[in-house]
Amino acid sequence: MSSPRLDETGRTYRGAGPRQRQEDRRARLVDAAVEVFGTSGYRSATVEKICATAGLTKRYFYESFDDSEALLLAAYASVTDRLRDNVLRGAGGGGADLDARVRGALTAFFRSVADDPRIPRIAFQEVLGVGPEVDIAYRRVTRSFVDAVLVVIGPAVDRTAFPEFHLRTLATGLVGAVLMIAQQWVLSENPQPIETVIASAHTILSAVLGELGPT
């Protein structure tokens, strides 16, 4: 038998309390933002369009977000978290072999970009030039991918032989190279096959990592 309808005093409604329902509505808005920002763009989107896509009213938008920029930040976090998680899972399949880990990470990264065009549009295009808060988030996400690179190469690199700042600088350069390759690839009118793009990125990473002596 269904639970009775109750008010917003903290009691449950159909098995979910007020906080859970709010979290569910927020998740629906973020999913809607990924769809709208990732297909038609952030600058052409409206709160009304986001709410219509989510199947919610504007009242519920402002329950979770102050404005569209706050929602863009949430959508950006959603797609980049997914992308980073895929990279780490791809690397994990390579075990302790560095080359296999790097190939796995690159394959997972570019497959994710190719399989869901909304991800690169939001991550590589829509967040650029929006404002200071989004710029801060962009730098924070970039640092998180640098951390992911260090996780990928960690099992094969003698971290005691190289200063942390040296490894982080190299990882930052690798992240920048891969992101630029991906950005130009998705924007190209005649994109190269994904296997070619992965191979090119792998060449760059292998050349740099070879200097660390792990391969």
From TrEMBL:
The keyword Zinc does not apply. Pfam families: TetR_N (PF00440). This is DNA-binding transcriptional regulator, AcrR family. Residues 1-11 have a biased composition (Basic and acidic residues). Residues 1-25 are annotated as: Disordered. One of its GO terms (molecular function) is transcription cis-regulatory region binding. InterPro entries: Homeodomain-like_sf, HTH-type_TetR-like_transc_reg, HTH_TetR, Tet_transcr_reg_TetR-rel_C_sf. Signal peptide: none annotated. Residues 23-83 form the HTH tetR-type domain. It comes from the Bacteria. Keywords: DNA-binding. The keyword Ligase does not apply. Residues 46-65 bind DNA. Transmembrane segments: none annotated.
